[in-house]
Amino acid sequence: MKISTLIVDDEAPARVRLRRLLAPESDIEIVGEAASGEDAILAIGRLHPALLFLDVQMPAPNGLAVLRAVRDEWLPCTIFTTAYAEHAVAAFELHALDYLLKPYSRERFAAALARARQHLLATGPAAGDARVAALLAGQTIENAPVERFLVKNRERYLVVRAADIEWVEAAANYVVLHTAAGNHVLRRTLAAVEADVDPRRFFRLSRSSLVNLATIREVQALAAGEHVVILRSGARLTLTRGLRELQERLKSLS
How far apart are the C-alpha atoms of 54 and 2, rounded to whole Å? Predict the structure, then answer.
């Protein structure tokens, strides 16, 4: 069985070189290319590649942001390519991840590809890459909030921007992302989403809801000291945390 492979790099010469290096490999099938992080997110969701060559340094979303966006849907065995050593390479080595430091030689490329083959042979593509998951969970490289989520909508995939989310509703081990364009189900817990998004922009109203502070229209007092938060969309959410904390967060919203 051939190894389905996706190439992601914002520089065309880098993609061409990878194609040339992979051309003699009879067990490799290049299923696509992406020149931007946004296109990469959609391609990973659509193609489910077994192997991913991923440029770390790209205009936002960069390589790490791409993986954080798709990690609940599909995490391929990943060979990172980067022109910057520094802390990125240290993190890759910590998690035993394959990487190519540009400019890399044919020999270095062959070694990384051989390691990827061994990993896929041992785990299989459907298992996802636990090493990549550990890297993302440890946030060894990037602590920036997640700005995009990949969600499945029937037979296609959509990229939902965090800024477009009005509120997030807990539903067992899933969440519903409520946006003006519609609702999307994501296979993740509310606590995990809360940990990913910008804490300056999102506020946990209760055990079952997380709100984008920019979408709040008003807060109404109810009987017995309870409050309800009303969003611009008209949605009404119960506030069970302290009102003062919400007021402070709204004041600090820039």
Answer: 19
Residue pointed to by tokens 């995490």: 75
Phi-psi map region of 172: left, alpha, beta (phi>0 left; psi -120 to 50 alpha)? left
Residues 64 and 154 in one domain: no
Give the list of residues 6+ apart from residue 93 with CB closer than 8 angstroms, or none: none
Q: Residue 207 is part of a domain; what is its CATH number? A: 2.40.50.1020
Q: CA torsion, points 53, 55, 58, 62, in degrees to nearest 10?
A: 70
Q: Please, are residues 170 and 190 in contact by the beta-carbon 8 Å criterion?
A: yes
Q: What is the CA radius of gyration of the chain?
A: 21
Instruction: Render pLDDT for 196-220 as a digit per residue (tens, 0 to 9).
Output: 899 999 999 999 999 999 999 999 9
Residue 143 lies in a domain: no
Cα of first residue to Cα of last residue in the chain, in angstroms, is 53
DSSP characters for 191-236? Answer: HHHHHHS-TTTEEEEETTEEEEGGGEEEEEE-GGG-EEEEETTS-E
Tell me the whole-structure pTM to 2 decimals. 0.84
Backbone angles phi, psi at 69, to 5 degrees: -70, -35
Report CA dihedral (114, 118, 119, 120) to the nearest 10 degrees: 100
Q: Residue 56: which domain range?
A: 3-138
> pLDDT digit string (tens) for 45-76?
999 999 999 998 888 898 989 999 998 889 99
Give the separation between CA 77 and CA 127, rounded to whole angstroms: 10
